[in-house]
Design goal:
Blueprint: H1 2-27, H2 34-58, E1 60-65, E2 68-73, H3 79-121, H4 126-130, H5 132-145
Antiparallel strand pairs: 1-2
């Protein structure tokens, strides 16, 4: 609640500052010819209209409900390009996950191929690895070598 009041007071300070500048500029126009003062008045009116238009389009809306604050955009929202830009991180994440999956599958296939190549080029036949006595043979041979 305190932060919300601070943002309103900052906006109020900006408006007050703008009013003081406008008063200063208006005070100095008494000595100018009528055409120049009218052009300045029209320019001020255009600037104020543009400022009001830009503030209404881009000003965020702060909605508070149940102790939670939600920041959103009134009216148009993000627009087409804003939605595209907000979807890009999701697309990049999905592409990254697919790339990681492809690389890991390739790595696993390469490991399996290396194991198969080692088994097929070994002196022992592949059936020897499935024999229960082979495990006992490996244990006794490793004990002898130590």
């Amino acid at each position: 609640m305190m932060q919300q009041q601070n943002s309103y007071s900052a906006s109020g300070l900006q408006d007050d500052f703008g009013r003081r500048i406008a008063a200063r500029l208006s005070a100095g126009t008494g000595d100018m010819p009528y055409e120049i003062t009218e052009r300045l008045r029209a320019a001020r009116a255009q600037a104020l209209a543009r400022r009001k238009l830009s503030v209404t389009r881009t000003a965020p809306v702060l909605a508070m409900a149940g102790g939670n604050a939600t920041l959103g955009f009134d009216g148009d929202g993000l627009g087409f390009w804003g939605r595209i830009a907000s979807a890009l991180p999701i697309v990049a994440l999905a592409a990254g996950l697919v790339a990681i999956n492809v690389v890991q599958n390739e790595y696993r296939a390469q490991e399996v191929a290396e194991v198969d190549a080692a088994l097929l080029t070994d002196d022992l036949p592949p059936a020897a690895y499935a024999d229960p006595g082979f495990v006992q043979f490996l244990k006794t041979s490793s004990e002898r070598s130590q």
